[in-house]
Amino acid sequence: MKEVVQGRRVINTIYIIVILAILFSNFFHKTLSVFLLLNPNYEFNNNTEIHFLDVGQGDAIAIKFDNGEVMLVDSGTQEYNQKLTYYLENLVLDKTKTINYLVLTHIDTDHSANVLSLMKNFNIDVFFRPPNISTYEDLSSMESNNTFDEIIEYASTHNIDTRVNSEGLQLKVGNTELNWLAPTLDTHFNSTNEYSPIIKLEYNGFSALLTGDVSSKIEQVVLEKYSSELDVDILKFAHHGSYNSTSKQFLQATSPEFACISVGENTFGHPSIKTLQRVLEYDQENDTNLFNNLYTTKDKGNVVFELGDKINVSFIENIDDYSFVSYFVYSSIAIVVLLLLMLKPYYYTFRKNRRFIIQNRQYQENAQKNIDSQNVLK
Q: How many CB atoms lie within 10 A of CB 280?
């Protein structure tokens, strides 16, 4: 009996040590959350952030401003709808599920495929649309597609505040300023890509340039108009790193320290070897290191630039890997389970003793009844 009691004490001591260890581990919940794939190594520090999202062979850029408001530029390919939604809900948006500014650069489905779904499932304050005319607005329009038609119809019938991307647009959100450098509304383009806005973002002494799918032709137009304003810290390479975008002249004018290409598995040869060669030549001519600071969503997953005291770059490779459950929840469950395991033998002992007491009482009662019945017979 003494050996059983001693063994139980040892086991209980182990349980208590493990419980205390779990309680102590809560002090390191951030590190453990990353290690256990509960949450990625990410925290919003009230600085404007630019998230280049992994949406396959398409574009989606989430901007979380220093005041907590959110802009989403494009929405990626339809097959990445679930990943996009999961990322936005868990890392970018608050509980109101509000996208304050939704920007569609142009109508191609690798940018527009999920816009309608976003409009239906999130609160959209302002929608910036390309200047193309949809068939919902004009049945004779030849510059639309079914996806864009449905987007414009939904925005119109649900009274979403809608504005047209155009040169000269300005927006201030918190301490962040955004300026649209393109497109010009008085120009007709043969390619839908050329309607993409070029948006310059400035915050905390840092700047970024978002370029949609424009070609070097539009880059040259912007160069001629805004050459003195194009020097930025972060450049989004246009059109998934296509060879006919991000020209040598544009690269020299923007002179970025960091760059990102939104790209996935594709048959177009994106990013182009010619584009990457331009970056190497740019580094050689300017004694810079842009090539090593050029990230693709295909290789790195979701790329996050935080504009804090310096530009901090982080990567969230696969958003689906994370459960987004608090470490405290798991540690609490583990402690409860250990307590139950520790108390289980005592519970069984209690039940056994209680059963013995009941059986003993019944035996005594039956014995008393027998004695009473014998007395009656006498």
A: 11
pLDDT in tens, 340-357: 888 888 777 777 777 777
What is the token pair recorded at 356?
């013995």
Q: Are 312 and 233 in contact (CB under 8 A)?
A: no
Residue 90, CA distances (Å) to 59, 65, 173, 320, 323 in order: 19, 16, 22, 11, 10
Question: What single letter denotes the amino acid at residue 82?
Answer: Q
The residue type found at 196 is S
Alpha helices in 127-177 (DSSP H): 146-157
Instruction: Tell me the residue type at 274.
Output: K
- What would the pLDDT profile of 63-116 be if each residue is shown by its tens digit? 999 999 999 999 999 999 999 999 999 999 999 999 999 999 999 999 999 999
CB 241 within 8 A of CB 296: yes
Q: How far is CA 315 from the centre of its chain?
A: 11
Residue 231 · residue 205 · CB < 8 Å: no
Q: Side chain identity at 226, as an amino acid letter?
A: Y
Residues paired with residue 305 on neighbouring β-strands, in sequence order: 50, 313
Dihedral class, residue 270 (left if φ above 0, else alpha if ψ from -120 to 50, else beta): beta
For the chain, what is the radius of gyration of the CA atoms?
32
Backbone phi and psi for residue 322, each to the nearest 5 degrees, phi listed first:
-105, 140
Phi, psi angle pair for 125, to nearest 5°: -80, -50
Q: What is the pTM for the complete model shown?
A: 0.88
- Could you tell me if residue 322 is left (phi over 0), alpha (psi between -120 and 50 degrees) or otherwise beta? beta
